[in-house]
Amino acid sequence: MFKVQISKNGSAPFNFKVSADKLDLNDDVNESNFEGEIEVNGKVTDGGKLLNVEGTIKYRKSFICDRCLNPSSEDRVIEFDEELDRSDLEGDVADLTELIRDILIASQPIQNLCKEDCKGLCPVCGKNLNEGECNCDRFVTDPRLEALKKFLND
Ligand SMILES: [Zn+2]
Ligand SMILES: [Zn+2]
To answer: Lower Cβ count inside 10 Å, N or C end of the chain?
Structure first.
């Protein structure tokens, strides 16, 4: 899908736009999806045995926030700088599809948050705390602390 013609001892620029569906990246289980098109820009530089591939990947991701469970989406940019072995070439053409796919998968955050300081949901009443406070007592008492308090009061 992402094929670049290598110029001997030189560097070859590339610019691809591919529908996220074609990269087979979406996983329905976690409701986290790549939207629309994935844009890849960069260049392949022939360094002899190894080829250097550097560039950026731009994409849009929609997901359910891990804290407040609201649907959200975000534009993201990944910069990459990778090495490709000459033996991976087909003639003088480099197929970057697997490489791009691996970079995208490896760079996914462990947590998907609608915003960095998302306050999440109240564990008592379930209210979205980004929309305002509720009146629940969310202070979790530590049983050891309770015992100490009782001891001190006696
Ligand atoms: Zn959130
Ligand atoms: Zn509450």
So the answer is: C
